Amino acid sequence: METRFEIRDAEFLLVKLDYPERLDEMGALRVLAWKEEQGISPDFFSHKAWLDEDDLRAHHWVIIHNKEIVAAARLSFHKEYSSVPHADLFDASLLDGFCKGPYASLNRLVVAPQYRGNGFSALLDEARINFAAEQGIKMIIAQPVESRIKPLEDLGFIYLGKIRPLFQMPERQIYFMIKELGKQD
Fold this sequence. Notes:
The chain is α+β, with helices and mostly antiparallel strands. It has helices at 23-34, 53-57, 120-134, 149-154; strands spanning 2-7, 10-17, 59-65, 68-78, 103-111, 139-142, 158-163, 174-180.
């Protein structure tokens, strides 16, 4: 799955990768893009790449410019809420009024600092949401930072509250949002 597009006379390519293609490059982009962000534990920047066990099971999308990954995001599938990354940091009883799985979770969205402001986050969100819908997913969970709440609401996500701090980001507030697929937006 590839989509070519242009921004300011530069050509980009949105690609869904096959595992484990370019996984180390995505992890390196996370370190590069997030090392200057406030509230993230510096321990995670002592390595060349920021990867975790969920990367091994997830689906990944990247945006490439001149053969270099400039943005990336992943989508994970879960039969039960308890297997969603950081499920233990949010009160699952708040999901009682919503459909029950299977679930997808949007995570690890990263855009290289010099490429921010080009709509890459929206392109990656739409690609992941469409893929989840094609796979029969009923509910997508997102755990964004504050700046991502409005864009996700524009895509039909509902804000449910804050989650307890992640150990990787002890001083950075993360929020909890959901989107039921198959409902009118």
